[in-house]
Design brief:
Belongs to the GcvT family. The protein contains nine helices and 20 strands.
């Protein structure tokens, strides 16, 4: 990735003015930390409200008579079962049931849906959807796919709703995993990537600049960078595509079957359905688990895991220090027979074997407003 290829956030000047430290992520120049530092940004989000610029992610609007059919083919869920404003966590799978991307889909109208896709996969996701819509003229996949040009912000934490209210955005009736269009060309959902109550807002740049200015007038709100976003999501046991879930990993092994309704598992015609049913029938060989290293030494992605006899047992996919948990936290994949809370493993950290316990997820409780 050369400097000329790197994408820049529409609000980059605001992050520069806030003395952000930038780094590359998924082809974007992203604010990693601000002067407060990762620890304070993380804890401030848990205690008050953190403001994140997530404009590297992409919003797609899918509409038309074939929108439901297209989504039901692309994802292992039932788009028709969604109520207006209801959101659903789901995936794009390949024919082997590997996870191409994880998404949140929100129903905006009878024939309109909003899809939020990950930054690194946005172009591939759009291509995947368009190819699928055009694949079979006999299929009822007649749908319009529009990639939206929006600034995308997240405000997360127990005081997020109050800060938005002070800024003139009322959120009281909106519950977790629901979304709507509060104004023209706006999209807002009560969702996020931290385990806290919070909101994600897609809106035009001029409106975003006004909203950011109002929010930052509130002492409860501070900018939070990508580094703290990662430690927050890891404590919450949430997956990062490219590490914890990839096209080589399936929803069964990833512990994400809760996102696929039972009737869809049994009879859905989504891409990868036959492969996933086969995996479920024989059982996954590896499972994603939480990992708690002993002591203060974090274990990082890629570290090999071994059982008590020194036999290979799996690998770490995400790892770091959990500021709220107060100890190192990690996730990884282990042999299915070892995926039991309390099981003792060892992580190889630069030649030193660090004792690691399998730990229930999440490491910190979720605090969503479900009503």
């Amino acid at each position: 990735m050369t400097g000329d290829d790197t994408k820049h956030l529409p609000l980059e000047d605001l992050h520069v003015a806030a003395n952000a430290r930038f780094g590359a992520f998924a082809g974007w120049s992203m604010p990693l930390t601000y002067p407060a530092g990762v620890m304070k940004e993380h804890l401030h989000t848990r205690e008050h409200a953190g403001l994140f610029d997530i404009s590297h992610m992409k919003l797609f609007e899918i509409s038309g008579l074939g929108a439901e059919a297209l989504l039901n083919r692309a994802c292992p869920f039932d788009a028709g079962a969604l109520e207006i404003s209801q959101s659903k966590y789901t995936f794009f799978l390949n024919e082997a049931a590997g996870i191409i991307d994880d998404l949140i889909v929100t129903r905006l109208g009878r024939q309109r849906f909003m899809v939020v896709a990950n930054a690194g996969n946005a172009e591939a996701d759009e291509k995947h959807l368009r190819e699928l819509a055009d694949f079979d003229a006999k299929a009822d996949f007649d749908a319009k796919i529009e990639a939206l040009d929006r600034v995308f912000l997240a405000i997360q934490g127990p005081e997020a709703w109050a800060a938005l209210s002070r800024a003139g955005i009322e959120t009281g009736s909106l519950l977790f995993m629901h979304g709507f269009e509060p104004r023209e060309n706006w999209f807002m959902s009560r969702s996020g990537y931290t385990g806290e109550d919070g909101f994600e807002v897609g809106l035009p740049e001029a409106d975003a600049r006004n909203l950011v200015a109002k929010l930052l007038e509130d002492e409860r709100v501070m900018w939070v960078g990508l580094a703290a976003r990662d430690s927050l999501r890891l404590e919450a046991g949430l997956c990062l595509h490219g590490l914890d879930i990839t096209p080589e990993m399936d929803p069964a092994g990833a512990g994400l079957m809760w996102a696929i309704p039972k009737e869809v598992r049994a009879s859905g015609a989504f891409i990868g359905a036959d492969a996933l049913r086969s995996i479920l029938e024989r059982g996954p060989t590896q499972k994603r688990v939480g990992l708690k290293p002993e002591g203060r030494q974090p274990v990082r992605p890629g570290a090999a895991l071994f059982d008590a006899d020194g036999n290979p047992a799996g690998h770490v996919t995400s790892g770091g220090f959990g500021p709220s948990a107060g100890h190192p936290v990690a996730m990884g994949y282990v042999q299915a027979s070892l995926a039991k809370p309390g099981a003792k493993l060892f992580a190889d950290v630069r030649g030193t074997k660090i004792p690691v316990d399998i730990n229930p997820l999440p490491f910190t409780p979720h605090r969503y407003r479900k009503g």
